[in-house]
Design goal:
mainly alpha, single chain, 255 residues, 0% strand
């Protein structure tokens, strides 16, 4: 009898996971379509760094992060070392550590470790957004369903961008390279409009980056190392000088 009950419970769980997986796929469709458009511009950056279509596809399927990939591609184009590329990519993707911590609090305590490991790979800003918004404990298959649709489109878009860059005139490639900056502007402008502190820090980053490329001694350092140093110094200073009050954090969680 106990065996039959266990079998029924297993069947119910698998059936439920299938429904959740399909629901995740539906949520991943609009994300994937957006990824396809954005990653096309990323493919132009990959092409400028000397990557072919397969390499661009592989980079995107292994590192699904616009800022992280762009940072990596620009460092490759600048001839940075592997260590510099790894560090700058780590810094650009550091926000996913916080998202992973938040996501882990939404999993049932008996969630197997392999599901936790797989879910850590599925975390992007958009997938995190739709997953964390689900009520109750999060079923891992919801995230799996979303990424099955979204991630291939992200990688295909990058490969298409590389191929298009190889076929288009140089002037048009240069023009399309600017499109990716539009995406980053869309990321920083909304929070900058809400907070004068963030707006000031953004301006400071631009000024410091420009100055570092001309200042004695500092300008002799590779661009990758300069970016790493500026990112760590400015972000650490901002955290110390403008800490987020605990009450604000609690209100953010409640929202």
């Amino acid at each position: 009898m106990a065996k039959n009950n266990t079998q029924k419970q297993f069947t119910y769980t698998m059936a439920k996971s299938k429904e959740v997986f399909i629901e995740g796929m539906k949520g991943g469709i609009p994300i994937g379509l957006g990824y396809l458009a954005v990653s096309f511009s990323l493919g132009i950056a990959a092409r400028n760094a000397g990557l072919n279509a397969f390499q661009g596809f592989l980079a995107s399927i292994l590192c699904v992060a616009s800022a992280g990939e762009y940072a990596g591609f620009t460092q490759i184009a600048a001839g940075a070392t592997l260590v510099e590329i790894a560090v700058i990519t780590f810094i650009a993707n550091a926000r996913y550590i916080l998202m992973s911590c938040a996501m882990s609090q939404r999993l049932a305590q008996d969630t197997p470790w392999y599901h936790r490991m797989l879910m850590s790979y599925t975390i992007t800003d958009e997938v995190f957004g739709i997953s964390i918004g689900k009520p109750g404990y999060l079923n891992p298959y919801y995230s799996y369903g979303a990424v099955v649709v979204a991630f291939p489109l992200w990688s295909i878009g990058t490969a298409l961008g590389v191929m298009a860059g190889n076929l288009m005139p140089l002037r048009l490639v240069s023009a399309l390279s600017v499109a990716l900056y539009g995406m980053f502007l869309a990321v920083i402008i909304p929070p900058a409009r809400k907070s004068k502190i963030i707006a000031g820090l953004i301006v400071l980053c631009f000024v410091a980056s420009y100055a570092a490329s001309y200042l004695p001694v500092i300008s002799d350092i590779s661009s990758g190392t300069r970016t790493i140093i500026l990112t760590v110094v400015i972000s650490a200073a901002a955290a110390l000088l403008f800490p987020v009050p605990g009450n604000d954090c609690n209100r953010e969680k409640e929202g």
